[in-house]
Design brief:
2 copies of one chain form a homodimer. The first copy, chain A, contains 24 helices and 21 strands. In chain A, helix 5 runs antiparallel to helix 6, helix 9 runs antiparallel to helix 10 and helix 13 packs across helix 16. Chain A is α+β, with helices and mostly antiparallel strands. In chain A, the strands form 4 sheets. In chain A, strands 1, 12, 13, 14, 17, 18, 19, 20 and 21 form a 9-stranded mixed sheet that branches. In chain A, a hairpin with a 4-residue loop joins strand 19 and strand 20.
């Protein structure tokens, strides 16, 4: 079997390509990894890596000192940098380089979570849904998850409990985290240094990004003591060196059937790409209107460009005949094995046929669900707050088990923290996002859909967006707090135009969600669960699940690749960065980094590529060597790697890392961060060569 | 065979759905049409319809009086209206309603062509390419076409000769036209009346658009005498009434193989839709910046929105399992018939396999061809002029047969007329378009493609676009004329920054075209020709060819349809328009039309749907009844109809027409165009009921 299929797709670990797999820490194939890499890691090594790994709300991170210092990517703290900045003092332009620990500044709403325990709750979760279907099934499951989480974590602000669905329902695990809510920015380079090459170099390699930042967790206004941390090294990784990446990859769809994937190819991806492409255009023009708009749009635009390029890579994967043939063959093999097991077949029926039959309804209901619920208001911060305030008020009036899942008792504190976080808002941006969203929703649902009348009344999208965004006072944290604490009575009595709008459209947005969950999601979940059981029966239990935003470990080597006759080396240096700079955006050097050019050894390794299995959410993941030293942080991959949403392709799948060697050089030579270098244990070593 | 296949796709006419087919006038199935419709048209009827039909550079039209008056769509004269307008006096807002013929105004660059002859030149054209391949094949063919055109039309400005490729190379015909270059606007309603419902109602039915305009052809400053014209009627068409639509549909791809269509689905359409979607976003934001920008962007934006929505319909068709199964079955039937003909197979080989093998190269080369050549500068008028001036100067230095086809001796006058047409330009718009184009080209070709360095040098797209567009003087017709007449020496000596830019990038843009024509187009043409021969052999000669922008006749009935359980009636009235108006854009009534509401009989039929076979380019096509009277003008179809690029679907294929009944009512009651009503022969008849 070994490597017969080009895309191995979650078969038994012995059949998978050496580097494939985003493994859970409680099921990591230690022996296979050691065999493949020639290493000798053990359970104690794994435990140390796990305890030094962390996550933010959307990125990964690694603890690198005993005093709560944490390495992640600059792009993972970009929102924090923006929140701490003003158009006059923009740390994205200047870099954030406090002279001492006392000047580290709190990131509004940012959290750090460290995994402390994994417990199996599969039996309870499956029992909760037994015999139910449609919305009743979804609600019973959500309620049980809420109960499990509350039982363990209660409302303890310092812990987080999360019931995680693995193998698309094959397993449910309770993940318990230690949570830190006072997260301060300790260092961020100039954004231009982190994102050199901008959107053009994003998702590519060779790469020249110093996409690293340091944050620190505090409690009671003092740094948290973190004896479990990675040892920092400024020795660069070498080609073919084994490397492990520990992080929280967001989502893969490797367990989807071919029928489900065709829906992604034909409907989901084109829908998403097309509408975001238009918002991108609006934001590009908005950005060009003034220096202030350039500042305001930066964060939203880079997020959209990142998603868009990822989508391009995925579209390309789904029309790649070689890649899709691999998936097809894997599904055929799976079905053959199941067909040969009469007892299993009797038990689970034909989940492939069930899922295939569901696709017509999926295609019918997904657009409204996506537009009205998943992506309502196109990321508008003010709208998001209004929606959270309104829904929390409505949901709190019900017993926890009957609420929308994210407003259950155990999950409510996370929502509250987001709503009350102090961050600046820019109504011009929210107006643009809301107006775009109303227009695209009307276009996709068509103007004669009664829900559109409910959304718009007789107003045009632009007029409505201008009215509610210019009139709202939700930018004021005190106003949000009063509404949050005032509950449903306060919300319903509010004359804030955005609150009134969001209240009025609840039947529409909740309705789209209910329709989708009831007629698509529940049946999909049940069929997927049957598939998961079949998969365990066919291939044994040594499988890794789809990524779910929870801590995973992937292993591989520092490695380049060959594509269309071109061989790419796995390392870049500062010399390459200087050579690539043209002076024109986005290939202009960051001033402080450029000024350090005479001092930074040109052969310092800046970025490396590795054959590890990572995806969005892995950003910031610590990359460690077999000795457990941190050698870099994952910050990207390539366009060709985007197919790894659907399957691991050993020929082209590459993670892109920024090295600790480069971070050390930058801290030392460009940003003068002596106190951090000392804390990382690399402060004095090269002191004799320092020029400032 | 009859109607066994849901999509009948150009099989013998007896097998085709009654309404299917964009037939050439020299091969119209008179008997079949009479049989299907119960009519009694004959060759004389056909000749009269042909002689009263006309085309503009991108639309169709019908002659409606003996003094050169022509009916087309408002959207077909939108560019003319924009050119005649200023931000202060915007005829798109006001309507263009001259009080007398003397106030009719010339449309810059606009032409009218009336077909006068069709001659078969297949033998000459096929002989010219025999034994050649690659670029030599393409060039020999182009040269022969140029010779044929020159031999017949010379440089006679009043005639146009065009060698037309039919059946994708199965036939070549010389089409000869009488050409009129003094075209004046006689009437255009308020744009809001024509485009009521805007982009939202575009490509839909029920529909409420007064999308009609009248133009007049002049020679020597006097109206052209046009004894061959359609009789105007204000009697509305009735359900199931037979109707014929004569026009110049632009392009269909019904003869593509399934392998070719997969390339359209997977690559061509997504590429195009995604980039235009972003430009749309930029233009929407641009439009919102000021009243002047709203005026400037209107024409470009509505064109993009139209193409985008058409693309959505096509994407939907290509993932419609029922529709694609029909095409698949048709191809299988065709291949079976050919396989049964051993002699034919020996002669033509396997063109399906040839075309399938070409798709990898097509997918590789098309993006650069599309970005660098087909859609260079995203429609920028100033760039287009610069490119025409530069290329004409370069090409005129060569013998006609060796030039890029569109600069051959016979075709040069058309280019010259475009370059010298006096029309306003708006550098802000051109800057936006050029900047967008440079950015998207860089994104798609990737920043490391050496052609990108050639395009941009060390400048950013924005800076380059601003520099060349703010510095160019090509907006001045005298400057263009001087460069045109000065030829290569003047062009090479010019310091105009746009001319210099366009000169510098010729190797890149011409190179992308050469690559595509050489490695893709020529081989595609040869295989398509083999398929055409096979098709004639398999199904006889009574076929219609793919649309090619040349005059066609389609027949059908006034008819609604049923889709997803909803039945749509085929007629709308002014009463429906009043009811649909909300007051908010784009559902706000045009003021002058709204003011006429008390006078226009509410049951006047406004729009109708018909089962005729039309596509983009058919806009403005006269719809005539069996008596040869003009009852309307085609102006649109529906989103579901967009699949007719790939096949006729009788269940949903519908043309949307504006009735002459509605045009009469508007001329009479809203716009006070007495002199035109008299000319149309409907001036006096209802005079007693008129209130003004």
């Amino acid at each position: 079997m070994r490597r017969i299929l080009f895309v191995s797709l979650l078969l038994a670990s012995t059949a998978a390509a050496a580097e494939e797999g985003m493994w859970t820490f409680d099921n990591f194939p230690i022996a296979a990894a050691n065999r493949a890499l020639g290493t000798r890691i053990d359970q104690a090594w794994l435990d140390r890596v796990r305890m030094a790994s962390a996550r933010t709300s959307n990125c990964s991170a690694g603890i690198v000192s005993a005093e709560g210092l944490i390495l992640t990517n600059e792009h993972c703290v970009a929102t924090c940098v923006a929140n701490l900045s003003t158009p006059e003092r923009d740390y994205a332009v200047l870099g954030f380089t406090p002279a001492s620990r006392a000047e580290e500044r709190r990131c509004p709403g940012m959290i750090i979570e460290v995994l402390t325990g994994i417990d199996d709750v599969t039996a309870r979760m499956q029992a909760a849904g037994r015999g139910l279907s449609g919305q009743a099934f979804t609600q019973a499951r959500d309620a049980e998850a809420g109960r499990i989480e509350s039982e363990t974590c209660g409302r303890d602000e310092t812990r987080r409990c999360q019931v995680v669905t693995l193998y698309r329902g094959g397993q449910f695990k309770l993940y318990t985290y230690r949570r830190y809510t006072d997260v301060r920015l300790a260092f961020a380079p100039e954004h231009r240094a982190a994102a050199f090459g901008g959107d053009l170099d994003n998702f590519s390699f060779p790469r020249f990004g110093l996409d690293a930042a340091l944050i620190r967790i505090y409690e009671n206004d003092a740094p948290v003591s973190t004896p479990n941390h990675f040892r920092w090294t400024e020795a660069p990784p070498t080609p073919e060196q084994p490397v492990f990446v520990a992080g929280s990859p967001g989502a893969t769809q490797r367990l989807l059937t071919q029928a489900q994937l065709m829906t992604v190819r034909d409907m989901t991806l084109p829908l998403e790409q097309l509408i975001w492409s238009e918002l991108r255009g609006r934001l590009i023009r908005f950005r060009e209107e003034s220096a202030e708009n350039r500042f305001i749009a930066a964060d939203a635009l880079s997020g959209i460009e990142n998603s868009y390029k990822r989508g391009i890579g995925r579209m390309r994967a789904l029309i790649d005949a070689r890649f899709m043939a691999g998936r097809e063959a894997a599904e055929a093999d799976f079905r053959r094995r199941v067909a040969g097991n009469a007892e299993l077949t009797r038990e689970i029926g034909d989940p492939w046929a069930d899922l295939a039959a569901l696709q017509a309804e999926t295609r019918r209901l997904y657009p409204a669900f996506y537009m009205l619920e998943t992506r309502a208001a196109g990321g508008s911060q003010l709208f998001t707050w209004a929606n959270q305030i309104v829904r929390a008020a409505q949901e709190r009036a019900r017993p926890s088990a009957e609420r929308l899942a994210e407003y259950g008792e155990a999950r409510l504190p996370a929502v509250q923290r987001q709503v009350l976080a102090e961050r600046p808002t820019y109504p011009a941006l929210d107006t643009l996002q809301l107006s775009w969203w109303l227009e695209k929703t009307r276009e996709i649902l068509t103007v004669d859909d009664p829900r559109i009348r409910r959304l718009l009344g007789d107003e045009s999208p632009e007029a409505l967006a201008r009215r509610v965004m210019s009139g709202t006072r939700l930018g004021d944290p005190a106003v949000r707090r009063a509404l949050w604490e005032g509950g449903l009575a306060a919300v319903e009595a509010s004359d804030d135009p955005l609150i009134r709008f969001v209240l009025a459209i609840q039947p529409v947005t909740r309705g789209a969600r209910r329709d989708y969950e009831d007629r698509v999601q529940a049946a999909t979940d049940r069929a997927s669960e049957a598939l998961a059981r079949a998969r365990f029966a066919a291939y044994g239990t040594s499988l890794y699940p789809d990524a779910t935003g929870t801590l995973r470990l992937t292993y591989g080597r520092i490695r380049g690749w060959t594509s269309e006759g071109r061989t790419v080396e796995p390392r870049t240096t500062f010399a390459g960065l200087w050579a690539r700079a043209t002076g024109a955006e986005p290939f202009d050097l960051a001033p402080r980094l450029a000024a350090a050019r005479p001092r930074i050894p040109a052969d310092t390794v800046l970025n490396v590529s590795a054959s590890t299995d990572t995806i969005g959410g892995s950003s910031g993941s610590p990359a460690v060597n077999a000795a457990g030293e941190i050698v870099g942080a994952n910050f990207d991959s390539t366009v060709l790697t985007q197919r790894n949403a659907y399957g691991y392709d050993p020929e082209v799948n590459r993670s892109v890392l920024v090295t600790t060697a480069a971070v050390t050089a930058a801290l030392r030579h460009a940003y003068g961060m002596e106190h951090l270098l000392a804390e990382l244990g690399v402060g004095g070593r090269r002191g004799g060569r320092r020029t400032r």
